[in-house]
Amino acid sequence: MDIELAIQPNDPALIPIAEKIYAGQRLTFEDGLTLFHSYDLLTIGQLADYVNRRLNGGKYVYFNHNRHVNPTNICAFHCNFCSFRRDPGDPDAYAWMPEEIVERIRPTVTPQITEFHIVGGLHPHYGFEYYLNVLRALKKAYPWVHLKAFTAVEIDFFAQMTGLSHEEILRQLIDAGLDSMPGGGAEIFHPEIRRKICPEKADADTWLAVHRTAHQLGLRTNATMLYGHIEKYEHRVDHLLRLRALQDETGGFQTFIPLRYHPENNQLGRRATWTTAHDTLKTIAISRLLLDNFPHIKAYWIMLTPPIAQIALHFGADDIDGTVMEEKVYHEAGATTEQYLDKLDLIRLIRAAGKIPVERDTLYHILRVYDEPLEEIEAEIIARRRRRIAEQARKKRELQHAQVSSR
Questions:
Q1: If you count Cβ atoms within 10 Å of the first and of the last residue's Cβ in the chain, which end, N or C, has fewer?
Q2: HSE value, Cβ hemisphere, 13 Å, CA-based, for 135
Q3: Beta-bridge partners for 260
Q4: How many Å apart are CA 91 and CA 263, to the nearest integer?
Q5: Whole-number Å distance between alpha carbons of 142 and 156
Q6: CATH superfamily of 60-369
Q7: Residue 131 and residue 138: Cα distance in Å, rounded?
Q8: What is the β-pairing status of strands 356-360 and 60-64?
């Protein structure tokens, strides 16, 4: 193919791949392996940035105002990469009732929050009704908040528990308030790795089948891949191409999130260690190149650290996740990041990378584009924050006065 390359790779093996990318041709399994085996990180990143600009314009970086909700850490499964799960009776095991969840999160829920990200353990003794009631309680208390809840692994667990089909489980969850699904539980699809790290979980075909059914019912979902443990490059490419094939079929995936393995406080950490920033940036970039039919690639700052997530915005990622608030799963496994970044933190992070911050809802409807001078945005958000704090203080004083008067 005789085409003039805007990017000249240092690795000659990348030249035919770059030619295919500029010609708009789909990359193959062999192309994916070549990319992973190459050390020409900057070229791979530039190619991914080119694809992001072609698909999304390259200027906007999305974030949302979200909160994590983990109803229980008690789990029937024993994935050896998981640091979150507990057995019943463990000193730090917990299982919150639906009404308790509503009250626990109330102090942190504001009208600006648009999403609850709800995942947790597979409780061996609580029935499906418990999970339905979690959704019902949250939707009743906070009707404006989008409920992105329960991975495909959880859906399959509910089906096994009840004897119902995946479709019937999803229909009942939708009736209870489910709005979309997260992409967790995918880990690595290849059976050689999956049976070593999570043998009890739904296999790859089942995970994909649940998402296919969700898409057929009109739900939008995300997808993930846990990388940087005992898998090899061919396992990563296999995983990405299986996702691409389902997206060709349904078009129901919104975002792909590469999840960096965290090795602390879990059994797999005895054989695996922290992966590198080089590997992380390469994985994000190659995900953008192979997943040509996924609208968005997310650099999840909780997993990556904000500085690496910021760099990833030039390696094909166009989403940085959200405010998050009270993330438990990865902090149990050694994440050293904050459990919360406020809106202003995210805006500053994105602007410092030379991008335009865009606040979105879960379905990527744009709520606001922050393209004004940063000083104006800072002044507006800080003033709003001060008004909210003053209002909270006023309500607290009124409550204290009422309590004193009633004595």
A1: C
A2: 22
A3: 227
A4: 22
A5: 27
A6: Aldolase class I (3.20.20.70)
A7: 11
A8: parallel
Any idea where the domains of the chain sit in the sequence? 12-56, 60-369
Q: What distance in Å separates the CA atoms of residue 244 and residue 249, rounded to the nearest whole number?
A: 9
Q: Count the Cβ atoms, other than its own, within 10 Å of residue 351.
A: 17
CA distance 154 to 226: 17
* Per-residue pLDDT of the chain in tens (407 residues, 90 and over written 9): 445 567 788 999 999 999 999 999 999 999 999 999 999 999 999 999 999 999 999 999 999 999 999 999 999 888 887 888 898 989 999 999 999 999 999 988 989 999 999 999 999 899 999 999 999 999 999 999 999 999 999 999 999 999 999 999 999 999 999 999 999 999 999 999 999 999 889 999 999 999 999 999 999 999 999 999 999 999 999 999 999 999 999 999 999 999 998 877 677 766 767 789 999 999 999 999 999 999 999 999 988 989 999 999 999 999 999 987 764 454 444 444 455 688 899 999 999 999 999 999 999 999 999 999 999 998 988 887 788 778 777 877 877 777 777 66
Report the predicted TM-score, pTM, of the whole model to 2 decimal places. Answer: 0.90
In which element (H, E) is residue 50 found?
helix 41-56
Q: What is the dihedral of CA 185, 51, 247, 155, to 10 degrees?
A: 20
SS3 state at 395? helix
Smallest Cα–Cα separation from 291: which of 356, 239, 342, 335?
239
125: its two tokens: 């003794």
Query: Exposed, middle or buried: residue 115 (CB in 10 Å: 0-12, 13-18, 19+)?
Result: buried
